[in-house]
Amino acid sequence: MSELSVRDFYDELAHDYHLMFRDWDASMAYQAEVLGELVRQSLGAGPHTVLDCSCGIGTQAIGLALAGHQVVGSDLSPVAAARAAAEAAARGSRLPAAAADMRQLPFREKSFDVVLCADNSLPHLLSGQDLRAALLGMRRVLRDDGLLMITVRAYDEARRTRRTATPPQVSETCDGQVITFQLWHWHEDGERYDLEHFQLIPAENTWHVRVRRSTYWALTTSQLTEFVAEAGFTNITWHSPASSGYYQPVLTAQRVPSAQ
For the Methyltransferase domain, which residue ranges apply (predicted)? Predict the structure, then answer.
């Protein structure tokens, strides 16, 4: 992963990220309900201490905080992290948020009940070395038997079909419809791809076209399962959108207790 390029991608997107949602606050509530239920099934009702280590502008973190959990956010993008904290405050909640690389989490060992890495953030890590560093760091800050939650795209099918684009998403704003879509350019290895993220934003009888670029590793379920197990997690379970109600596949796993 090129830290600078990924950070730039999200620094630039932070102002417009909410425009991808038809109703951002409704999405916060829906995602918190689904993810909160997965937490409850593993750890009980709570409230729980949660680290959202790819919090972005706060979609999952704010929803979980409003649901009563004690949430801390971190993100590679300082612009996104700052907006997450501000958006939480605007909704009467508190979300401490900091700029931090998920490969070098600046938190104490065993300080969280849950570590969340959502919105297909982990596949920005393009090598096994970086992926291991991130997962080991997530394990380090989890308490014994603490819960790891990762949400990613359904890459098994995407790898088979070599998809080249996503369907346009249309959301309503006070100024009109915002159109968002992606183009995918696959690398020769068949596993990684360069993404072009397009937003068409209405402005006085014309469109502002915003294009951001980044690179992803299209990790299959078996690949990610293997990395998570190698990092010291057990009870690894995949929850499909059909079973969980979430918009992406969700991997849950628990930290193996440290040897006494």
Answer: 50-146
